[in-house]
C-alpha cells in the first residue's frame, strides 16, 4: 500500500511509520518541517519513506500529494502537555480541527482518492468520571475543553464519508511506551518518591503503543471497520493500581503520594488527563477480533520500564 501519514514524526507516528515500513508499504510523511522529518526517518534506513512538506492549516500544493495514496492516517496535533495559555488552547483546537478539515479537503480534491482515512481522536471525548463506564456508543458526560476538541476533531473527519471514503476514528487512551506521558510520571518513582497521583481513585485508561499502532494498521486494511473504536486496553486500572504496579515493576516503594503540583509541573494543564480520568472499554474494538499483545498493565509496564 501507499499510505499518507500526518503527525508521523511524533511518539505514536514514528512507531507507526516504522511498522508500515517493516511491512513493505510505501509511506508519504506529511511534515511541517521536512528537514526535521528526514532526520527522524533517514533515507538510509527508510528507503520507502517520502517526505512532503506541508502547511496543515492552509490549502496548498501539498494537497495534490494525497492523490494516488491508498490510505491516510491522521495523527497531527499540537501537544497538550504544556501550560494552556489562550494561544496554546487555540492551537490545540485549530491544529486538530482545521488541520483535519484541510486534509479532508485534499482527499475530496484528489483525482485518485484513497479508500480509507484512519483518524485520531482521544478518550477525552467522554469527559471524566470516577464511576461511569464509557463505550464507543456512550454520550459524553461533560463538555470540558478536551471533550470539545475531540468532538470538533471527529466532526471534521466525518466529512470524508461524503466522498464515499471509509472512516475509522480511534479514540486513543493514554499511550504507554518508551517516552510519552509515562516517562514524565516515572521521574518521581526514580527519585523514590512515587505513589498515588491525585486521589488515586481516578481511572487510567491506557494502551500500549504497539497495540495502538496495530489497531491503526488494522483500521487501514480491515474493510469491515468503520466508525468509532476505543484505542484503549481491555483492562483499565485506577491510578492507585497503576502506581502500585509501577512501584513493583521498578522495585521502588510506592507509598508517598505525589502532590498534584508535581504532576502539573511535569505535564502542564495536560495533567487533567491523569488527575481526573475516565474508565473506557474497547467494546467495538474487541468485536472486530482485535488481539491485544498487552491486555494487562503489568506486562505492558515491564516491557517499557527498563531500569
Ligand atoms: N500519546 C497519547 O497518550 C495520546 C492520547 C490521546 C490522543 N493522542 C493523540 O494522538 C496523536 C498522536 O499523539 P502523539 O503522542 O504521537 O503526539 P506527538 O508526539 O505530540 O506528535 C504529534 C505530531 O503532530 C505534529 N504536530 C505537532 N504540533 C502541531 C501543530 N501545531 N500543527 C500540526 N501538527 C502538529 C508533529 O508532526 P510534524 O512536526 O512532523 O508536523 C508531531 O510529531 C495526537 O493528535 C494526540 O492528541 C495521543
From TrEMBL:
InterPro entries per the UniProt record, alphabetical: DUF1731, Epimerase_deHydtase, NAD(P)-bd_dom_sf, SDR39U1
SUPFAM superfamilies linked: NAD(P)-binding Rossmann-fold domains (SSF51735)
Domain NAD-dependent epimerase/dehydratase: 3-222
Xref: CDD domains: SDR_a8
Residue span(s) of domain DUF1731: 258-304
Domain of life: Bacteria
NCBIfam families the UniProt entry points to: yfcH (TIGR01777)
Similarity section: Belongs to the NAD(P)-dependent epimerase/dehydratase family. SDR39U1 subfamily.
Name of this chain's protein: TIGR01777 family protein
Amino acid at each position: 500500500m501507499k499510505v499518507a501519514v500526518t503527525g508521523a514524526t511524533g511518539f505514536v507516528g514514528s512507531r507507526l511509520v516504522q511498522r508500515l515500513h517493516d511491512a513493505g508499504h510505501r509511506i508519504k510523511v506529511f511534515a511541517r518541517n521536512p528537514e526535521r522529518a528526514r532526520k527522524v526517518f533517514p533515507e538510509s534506513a527508510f528507503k520507502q519513506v517520502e517526505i512532503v512538506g506541508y502547511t496543515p492549516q492552509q490549502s496548498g500544493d501539498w494537497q495534490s500529494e494525497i492523490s494516488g495514496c491508498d490510505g491516510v492516517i491522521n495523527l497531527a496535533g499540537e501537544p497538550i502537555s504544556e501550560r494552556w495559555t489562550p494561544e496554546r488552547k487555540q492551537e490545540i483546537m485549530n491544529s486538530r480541527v482545521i488541520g483535519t478539515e484541510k486534509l479532508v479537503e485534499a482527499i475530496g480534491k484528489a483525482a485518485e482518492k484513497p479508500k480509507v482515512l484512519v483518524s485520531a481522536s482521544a478518550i477525552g471525548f467522554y469527559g471524566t468520571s470516577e464511576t461511569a463506564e464509557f463505550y464507543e456508543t456512550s454520550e459524553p458526560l461533560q463538555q470540558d475543553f478536551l471533550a470539545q476538541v475531540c468532538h470538533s476533531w471527529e466532526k471534521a473527519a466525518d466529512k470524508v464519508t461524503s466522498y464515499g471514503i471509509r472512516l475509522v476514528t480511534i479514540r486513543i487512551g493514554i499511550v504507554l511506551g518508551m517516552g510519552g506521558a509515562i516517562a514524565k510520571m516515572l521521574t518521581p518513582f526514580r527519585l523514590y518518591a512515587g505513589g498515588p497521583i491525585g486521589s488515586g481513585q481516578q481511572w487510567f485508561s491506557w494502551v500500549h503503543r504497539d497495540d495502538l499502532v496495530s489497531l491503526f494498521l488494522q483500521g487501514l486494511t480491515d474493510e469491515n471497520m468503520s466508525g468509532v473504536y476505543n484505542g484503549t486496553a481491555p483492562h483499565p486500572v485506577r491510578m492507585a493500581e497503576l502506581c502500585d504496579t509501577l512501584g513493583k515493576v521498578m522495585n521502588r516503594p510506592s507509598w508517598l503520594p505525589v502532590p498534584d503540583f508535581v504532576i502539573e509541573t511535569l505535564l502542564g494543564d495536560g495533567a487533567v488527563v491523569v488527575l481526573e480520568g475516565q474508565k473506557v472499554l474497547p467494546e467495538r474494538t474487541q468485536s472486530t477480533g482485535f488481539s491485544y499483545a498487552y491486555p494487562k498493565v503489568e506486562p505492558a509496564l515491564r516491557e517499557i520500564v527498563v531500569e
